[in-house]
Amino acid sequence: MTAIPERSGLLVCRHPRPVPGETVRGIKITTAPETLLAAARDLGLLDVVILGDSALRCGDCTLKELRATAAQRRRGAPRLRALLPLLDDRSESPWESVMWVLHLAAGIEVEPQKKSSINGRFVARGDLWLVGTRRIHEYDGDVHRDRQTHRSDLGRDCRLVEIEWQRMGFTSYQLLNEGASISASADRLLGRRWNPQRLCALGSVIR
């Protein structure tokens, strides 16, 4: 029996039977659902959600295909099944996926890519709308510090204020380290009492 290769950062697994594959640019690789199943064996829930959202958004697979793969009795399948309700093809970046999961873990109902308009005129599209409010939460990456992008963002923020919408932007640091504050702020807006137990839910998806 050939020894399994050992190399730092390389994970190798052998299968008793062939797994689903496809050829991309002349290279044979596993299908997207099979790749996500493999990732679910070793990566954290949040990491696999990011990969899953990307696969769905790019059209590499469908939720139906993921459900079929997750229904198998194989390593990684329980985690893949657990994260299926967290996937959404409307997420447009890894950090949007993180923000989406953070809100769901805290029990905050949100809708991705919310369009705001007035008198039929489009005003803005926000990353996450806090359902039942006039607030949107967005991830602000480094690209938003570009001069032209920053100028456009300021104009957009002014238009949102004019139609009485509130925009709150968050950095990656805030999403990873200040989830409780983001959740508490949303609770106040929604008229909910702060529940410390939500910290456990937030921590379980970030780890």
Which structural traits does this protein have?
single chain, four-stranded mixed beta sheet, alpha+beta, elongated, 2 domains, 9 helices, Endonuclease, Chain A, 207 residues, two-stranded antiparallel ribbon, 6 strands
Mind explaining what this structure looks like?
- With 207 residues, this protein is an alpha+beta fold.
- The chain has 2 domains: 21-86, no CATH class; 94-206, VSR Endonuclease (Endonuclease, Chain A).
- The protein is 45% helix and 18% strand.
- The chain has helices spanning 32-42, 45-57, 63-70, 77-83, 94-105, 147-162, 172-177, 179-190, 198-206, and strands at 21-24, 27-30, 110-118, 121-130, 135-139, 166-170.
Text of the CATH class of the largest domain: Alpha Beta
Radius of gyration: 20 Å
Biggest sheet record: 4 strands, mixed
State the CATH architecture of the largest domain: 3-Layer(aba) Sandwich
Say how many strands there are.
6
Q: How many helices?
A: 9
- Report the portion of residues in β strands: 15-25%
Write the element-wise H/E pattern from the N-terminal end onward.
EEHHHHHEEEHEHHH
Total count of domains: 2
State the distance separating the first and last CA atoms.
37 Å
At the fourth level of CATH, the homologous superfamily of the largest domain is VSR Endonuclease
Question: What is the overall shape?
Answer: elongated
